[in-house]
Write a structure and sequence with these properties.
Length: about 250
């Protein structure tokens, strides 16, 4: 009884071997085709994205037009100025009337014959500026006299007047006067009542200093000559004199 399972197991194995021998051999399976590994090359196309360049043109700014000033001159000057702003405005300007006048003379001067027997004209008085001028002998820069024995007197009065509270200063620039016979006197004020600033100037040398009024705003210059300059040295001829004047404080 112990050997019964073993016998049974052997019997089963034998039957299985016998059945395997009697069964037909199965057809061999055809060999499988070799497995082809296909390599797929993916071509990646580069897609070029077109770059669009946008050129931004600068916006031109119009320059403001120049303002043209149109001036219309009529009997009454009127200047019309047209401004080119928006909206356009027309501005009419009436300028103030400008009156051009000659410079005001602040000093006056005259040259007159002093006496009825004096020969006229007596010399000249000339304004150089509104505040200055010159006085000079007859025929300057030529000789004021003659060279003969006849006597022809010249008594001249030069009157200079400055504005009120102003003074006058006189300076000789040329001085050739016959010694002792021809004389120049300078007065502060109106001749003959003025105060003498210089008495009996004569000879051939310039007076040393200018003469300035002190008491008044007027000056009188008196020139006395017999006009016979025979005594004047030949080397000093012609006889003549000149002085400048100006208004001072």
């Amino acid at each position: 009884m112990k050997f019964l399972p073993i016998v049974f197991l052997l019997a089963v194995v034998c039957l299985a071997v016998a059945a395997a021998q009697e069964a037909p051999n199965p057809k061999p399976k055809p060999p499988r085709p070799p497995t082809t590994t296909s390599t797929t090359t993916s071509t990646v196309r580069k897609t070029t994205t077109p770059v669009t360049t946008t050129t931004v043109r600068p916006i031109k700014t119009r320059k403001p037009k120049k303002t043209t000033a149109t001036t219309t001159t009529t009997s009454q000057p009127t200047t019309t100025t047209t401004a080119t702003t928006s909206p356009r405005r027309t501005t009419t300007v009436n300028p103030a009337t400008t009156t051009t006048t000659a410079p005001r003379r602040t000093v006056t001067c005259t040259a007159v014959a002093l006496t009825e027997i004096s020969e006229s004209p007596c010399g000249t008085c000339t304004l150089l500026t509104p505040t200055s001028g010159t006085i000079q002998s007859l025929n300057f820069p030529n000789d004021y006299g003659v060279y003969n024995s006849s006597d022809t007197f010249i008594n001249s009065l030069y009157k200079i007047k400055a504005p009120p509270r102003r003074k006058i200063q006189l300076t000789f620039t040329t001085f050739v006067v016959e010694q002792k016979f021809d004389l120049i006197n300078v007065y502060d004020g109106i001749f003959p009542s003025g105060t003498i600033l210089a008495a009996n100037l004569t000879g051939y040398s310039l007076p040393p200093a200018p003469y300035t009024t002190v008491e008044t705003n007027q000056m009188s210059v008196v020139f006395d000559t017999d006009r016979n300059n025979a005594g004047l040295p030949f080397r000093l001829r012609p006889a003549k004199w000149q002085a400048t004047f100006k208004v001072v404080l």
